[in-house]
Design goal:
Largest sheet: 6 strands, antiparallel
Structural class: alpha+beta
Number of helices: 6
Order of helices and strands: HHHHEEEEEEEEHH
Oligomer: single chain
């Protein structure tokens, strides 16, 4: 017997968002004006114990040495990482406060320089930071000189396993006959093939907040739990579904 589809009691990040692709409308940030998005992620509070049991491993934070290397790599090519990105990626405690449904935070081995056709001559760089559980879908941070950044949905990721120094999931490199070794710019690999990239949201911290609140509000609703004060405030700003 078929059943009617469940209707969420809230917009789930406004109309037109895609939970599968984790993409949100650019103007959705205006609904987050009640949060102070200053990079310290104070709003990223731990879920209740009974709800946190309903999730899978979400990845681990990278070491300070790894972050310092990444920041130095960015400085060599004139880009700066958002404070919120560095705060999150370096903290297992914060990463474990997300509900990702099997996806997990995984920092790519290095920045990758976009080719002109990848970002319309933006001169930018990308790095993977989130993967689905099977390594079949990725999300990447894009950064360009001048301070611009955004979150991208990258179905195939931005790191080529055919010419990388590191294989899938951090394993040994795989040699592919006939595939050229990547070229370097200031020590940063240049994408050897055209990258498949789609805008997920123009602000990393805003995207992160929507990812966090949307998932836990949905989980709480499905589990029949009362929402926290911050979760209720989030839904009030996005409005009830008509």
């Amino acid at each position: 017997m078929s059943s009617s589809p469940r209707v969420h009691p809230f917009n789930s990040i406004c109309l037109g968002h895609s939970s599968e692709n984790r993409t949100y409308p650019s103007n959705a940030k205006i609904h987050l004006d009640f949060l102070e998005l200053n990079g310290d992620l104070y709003w990223l509070q731990p879920p209740s114990d009974d709800l946190s049991a309903h999730t899978w491993p979400r990845g681990t934070g990278v070491s300070k040495e790894r972050l310092d290397e990444l920041v130095a790599q960015g400085q060599r090519v004139g880009i700066e990482f958002p404070k919120a990105f560095l705060t999150l990626i370096g903290s297992t405690k914060l990463i474990e406060r997300f509900f990702l449904g099997g996806d997990y935070f995984y920092l790519g081995p290095s920045l990758v320089k976009c080719n002109p056709e990848d970002d319309n001559n933006g001169g930018g760089y990308v790095i993977n930071f989130l993967s689905d559980q099977q390594g079949c879908r990725y999300w990447a941070l894009y950064l360009a000189p001048g301070g611009y950044h955004c979150v991208l949905n990258a179905p195939c990721g931005v790191h080529c396993w055919k010419c990388a120094d590191e294989g899938p999931y951090g394993g040994p490199p795989i040699e592919y006959e006939g595939h050229p070794k990547y070229e370097l710019y200031e020590g940063v690999p240049i994408a050897c093939e055209k990258l498949e990239l789609f805008l997920a949201h123009p602000s990393f911290e805003a995207w992160l907040a929507m990812l966090y609140f949307d998932a836990w509000c949905d989980m709480g609703w499905r589990a029949g739990r009362d929402l926290s004060e911050s979760q209720r405030e989030y839904l009030e700003h996005f409005g009830e579904r008509k």
